[in-house]
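Retro notes - structure team

What went well: the batch runner handled both jobs without manual restarts.
What didn't: labels got mixed up in the shared folder, which is why I'm recording both outputs here explicitly, each with its sequence directly above its tokens.

Job 1
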Amino acid sequence: MKTHAIRIHQTGGPEVLLWEEVSVAAPAAHEVLIRHAAVGLNYIDIYHRSGLYPAPLPFTPGLEGAGVVEAVGASVTEFKAGDRVAYANPPLGAYAEARVMPADRLVRIPDAITDVEAAAMMLQGMTAQYLLRRTYRVKPGDTILIHAAAGGVGLLVCQWARHLGATVIGTVGSEDKADLAKAHGCHYPILYKTEDFVAQVREITNGQGVPVVYDSVGKDTFLKSLDCLQPLGMMVSFGQSSGKVEPFDTGLLAAKGSLFLTRPSLMAYTAKRSDLVAGAEELFEVVGQGAVRIEVNQTYALKDAASAHRDLEGRKTTGSTVLLP
């Protein structure tokens, strides 16, 4: 079958994202052929495009999509043609009008969730789910710190953590983003460019610090984040939008109060199908309840993925962004 997809033949800037005609094979025994209705844009796509996270060339980027099943392989029993499904997993290849996917990596989209919402929520929403419910299980009365609070994952974490009964401190880069984070459940937005977020966290917590920091920024915030933690606190480094965290002496973790450090990935947390399905069901439930709103603040044509990448890297986006085939 002939279709179109974004292809990368060499890593580099947004200009390497090329719209090309491609062939899609019929699904193998355990695969499903999906016609995409919407494709999610995520910062990890930039890491793949730039070569920070290497992938064999040439390739189609993207880890998140939603659409309709067109055909199923001979061994697939859980899905049938016409089912609405979504995913946020390898293999790469979501930036395409149609593709095949392993059936065990798909989840069914509930009727209350639109295709665009599903494409916008799976990777970021499932990330928020494991961060808040599994990596450090947030409890009523906790005070947490989330960096990039106005970003896609950040806005979801703010809403969900507040729903769980936590007090949310979040760092943002502008007054507009502070207002956005506050409107989504962040009790204390901090303008990290002009304010000392360590001092602010200490003041908000009466000098105690927080039990957990969720940090997707990386190099610019990592060491200061350790100073925000209370003894035995957990540093969750789940991204690096400002660059890779530089090597450091792990003795710092002892000196700052026997801290825990983890570098989790969604792929590890959803490796078992039972965990994937349970996480998605919990996500769909809080969205269905209205406790967490999925806001798609930008859409681009899939063929214009380069423009979407420029805006994401330029910090011009908020909330979720979706590419439309």
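Job 2
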Amino acid sequence: MKNLIKTFTVLFCASILSYSCASKEDETTMETPKSIYELAAADSDLSSLKAAVDKAGLSATLSGSGTFTVFAPSNAAFSQFLTANGFASLNDVPNAVLKEVLLNHVLGSKVMASQVTTAYVSTLAKGSASATRNLSMFINTASGVKINGVANVTKTDIGATNGVIHKVDVVIGLPTIVTHAAANPNFTSLVAALTRADQPNFVSILGGTASSPFTVFAPTNTAFTNLLTELNLPNLAAIPGATLTEVLKYHVVAGANVASTGITDNMVVTTFQGGTFKLTTTGGVKIIDQKARTSNVIATDVQCSNGIIHVIDKVLLP
């Protein structure tokens, strides 16, 4: 009996020691929480992102305290970006450009995958159109998650001490007026009109910097449908080319980035077409065109690198 008790005691002590050692081993192998920068540095597929962050001087920002959301491009995405923009390597990208491109992947709040909806959000980047207004990002959740019409989210919810990382397959360039028009499915009619074969090269004009910044009042698809009904036309192709050119130019103001805060009651605006329209603010912002028709501004301040977009519910006529 004494031998049995002695054996049990030895086994019990051995098991306690074994558990204690295992617990200590678990404690030592448990991962220490990492910042966004540390996670990028530890991920072999984000080595280009880490190098870009170092070069742009953003390592301290993404290592420090905060609540960031970072859409992190893969190494393949950076290779594609460099090739598309004529850079031999990251070293050839000007630091000022690289910094804004990287900040265009960062939101100032933590947004988990379950919180993502189809909407415009603001990044931490700025473009040449405004020194004070941050660039807008369009997130579309209609089929997966697509950003600015170019980048797909491939992995989500990589948690960090200062926010969260979602991986993307394309470097998200600074969005122009054209970028945001093409990205939003509510503007397909507008894009079709702008790119019609008999029109000026509006893609080059509104995607560039000559005559910029632009303020664009962008009609929705429904606005174009209602215009065709109003004019008793079967489709967009039935609008004469010269007429369409004048109409499209009438929605653009050149040389000004006019945010909603800069709109005043009875403000008269001279358009890229040469004509004018009047803005009123009573009961919401409205536009009275040269045909005395009224359009409502239904969304504002989509900030682009070369201008700003406001959304309207009726096509304006000069």
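One thing worth noting from job 2: The two ends are 107 Å apart (CA to CA).
We'll revisit the folder naming next retro.
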